[in-house]
Amino acid sequence: NASKFDYDLVVLGGGSGGLACAKEAVEYGARVLCLDYVKPTPAGTKWGVGGTCVNVGCIPKKLMHQASLLGEAVHEAVAYGWNVNDRDIKPDWKKLVKVVQNHIKSVNWVTRVDLRDKKVEYVNSIGSFVNPHTIKYKTKQGELKQLTAQYVVIAVGGRPRYPPIKGAIELGITSDDIFSYEKEPGRTLVVGAGYVGLECACFLKGLGYDPTVMVRSIVLRGFDRQMSEFLAAMMTERGIHFLNTTIPMGVERTPEGKLLVQYRNTTTQTDGSDVFDTVLWAIGRKGLIEDLNLGAAGVQTYNDKVIVDHTEATSVPHIFAVGDIIYGRPELTPVAILSGRLLARRLFAGSTQLMDYTDVATTVFTPLEYSCVGMSEEMAIERLGADNIEVFHGYYKPTEFFIPQKSFRHCYLKAVAEVSGDQKILGLHYIGPVAGEVIQGFAAALKSGLTVKTLLNTVGIHPTTAEEFTRLSITKRSGVDPTPAS
Ligand code: FAD
Ligand code: NA7
Predict the structure, then answer these.
(1) HSE-up (13 A, CA, CB side) for residue 267
(2) Which amino acids bring their CB within 6 angstroms of ligand 2?
(3) Is residue 445 a contact partner of residue 357, using CB atoms and an 8 Å limit?
């Protein structure tokens, strides 16, 4: 009997997953309360409702990526005959930060209005468990409140990690700070070569700064190796520096106000140091379970993540988790949103549809973007065996690259497929312009059982780069050079 509880659903965390779940649940008549609170970063950055994606993730990242691509486009425009007077074009960092932050504030506003309209109760406070059905939080006035809920959804997401070395917290910043950073970043050390690190280094380079990426082991661990190495090579070609197999040892401020970073190359076992204006940690994220008092609810965790089953249920049947806080799932906004929505439908609308976490497409927003869906070549070999897969691949030359004589050395794509029958496609990988836009449609096709036969029977849209997927004919096994003649 739901009525014995104050709420049908309490959602802890108002980010992508939590808000999607809360808004969907009220559609089916549930009484919903959502708690969201952001602790300021060590550098003092704070933001509003909406979570990581809107405030310090996907959205400001894509806007800075776009700003950086536009700088490149101005130079290309000259080649196309545009008269651009000042060719030494420089971005105004402060203005960029201002317009990005203005956009974010408008999204925060729309989110709050939306919650009010949909009658989701929203409280700006940290929620934690008192017992499996009871949540407590402090009001703005400091009053402690308790409420009961039939179901609880944990959607608290994560925050960037800092390395446990001298000066890291006091002197370094993270992706939580960069999009509102008042100072020009200047010469920047980006520590970490996951996609957040690579993307930040790339937009900084595009905006005219001088980034160095410190790589502990390999770039983009977990992604297709060949594509990842292509990305690193493309970044090097564009003047981004890499410190390979290197770890940071400490940061201190120099008398001139710069940051002196000590580091160690773990291959050569040699120590080195360099001076930077900004140090940005992009060494991964930790789940925000610390304030939840999960012990009081009996929810099981692994490291700093919540363990769930295929229904997103935790070890306590009426407590669920969605989004980045789940152990072992992709940390992506659309994943958090869809799993939150589907969960609400199962809880309040009698649905049985489960979230399918397989074949989730993703994009790394480097200047030539990398997008993929399905298996990497390594994963396909591991799962099916090298003899049972066929890899189709090719380099291509985007038409729009010719006039500005842009490098297309790393424009490359491949399809990983089964070797026999109609050759079911297991994974698609693409490096080139607007990769996310290209792969999104193919992701739906792959989910519908796309085969090489279908791909090659699909008429391309000319002249696009996406059409290259419809004319892949060279297999890796053949050893034929996949470079186009013209
Ligand atoms: P979040 O959005 O992090 O929301 C959780 C909220 O809960 C936060 O506001 C948090 O402060 C709050 N909270 C925590 N503890 C409590 C508590 N006890 N009580 C109340 N509130 C609490 N994904 C993509 O799909 N595409 C991208 O291009 C992309 N780019 C990214 C770029 C960067 C730099 C980063 C950092 C991430 C990016 N992501 C991207 C990932 C994406 O942002 C996350 O997957 C997504 O935001 C996860 O949503 P969530 O609901 O799980 O958590
Ligand atoms: P990732 O993808 O976990 O990458 C973290 C990177 O940082 C990776 O290259 C790590 O190297 C490196 N790392 C981790 N710890 C250290 C230390 N202590 N020192 C130096 N380098 C280190 O995290 P991201 O922040 O890029 O992205 C996290 C998620 O957020 C991502 O899934 C997105 O969806 C959003 P390693 O390969 O472990 O040697």
Answers:
(1) 8
(2) 163, 191-197, 216-217, 221, 247, 282-285, 331-332
(3) no
**Could you tell me the pTM of the whole model?**
0.97
**Alpha helices (H) along 80-194:** 93-118, 168-171, 175-178
Q: Which two tokens stand for residue 384?
A: 């099916």
What is the side-by-side strand order in the sheet with 187-191?
173-174, 278-281, 187-191, 210-214, 241-243
Whether the CB of 16 sits within 6 Å of ligand 1: yes
> What's the CA gap between 65 and 84, in Å, rounded?
22
Q: Are strands 278-281 and 285-287 parallel, antiparallel or unpaired?
A: unpaired
Query: Would you list which residues are annotated within the binding site for NAD(+)?
Result: 192-199, 284
Question: Distance between CA 396 and CA 150 in Å, rounded?
Answer: 56
Give me the residue label for tokens 């693409």. Answer: 430
**320 class by beta-carbon count within 10 Å (0-12 exposed, 13-18 middle, 19+ buried):** buried
Residues 49, 36 contacting (CB under 8 angstroms): yes
| Distance of CA 219 from the midpoint of ligand 2 (Å) | 9
Report the chain's terminal Cα–Cα distance, integer Å: 70
Please spell the DSSP secondary structure of 217-281, one letter per residue. Answer: S-TTTTS-HHHHHHHHHHHHHTT-EEETTEEEEEEEE-TTS-EEEEEEETTTTEEEEEEESEEEE
Question: Tell me, what's the pLDDT at 1?
Answer: 46
Q: What is the ipTM of this complex?
A: 0.96
160 CA distance to ligand 1 middle (Å)? 10
pLDDT along the chain (486 residues), means of 10: 85 98 98 98 97 98 98 93 82 97 98 96 98 97 97 98 98 98 97 98 97 98 98 97 98 98 98 98 98 98 98 98 97 98 98 97 98 98 98 97 94 98 98 98 98 97 97 96 86
Q: Which helix (H) or strand (E) holds 187?
A: strand 187-191
| Cα 410 from chain centroid (whole Å) | 22
Q: Centre a 10 Å sphere on the Cβ of residue 159 and count the other Cβ atoms it contains.
A: 21
What is the structure's pLDDT at 87?
66
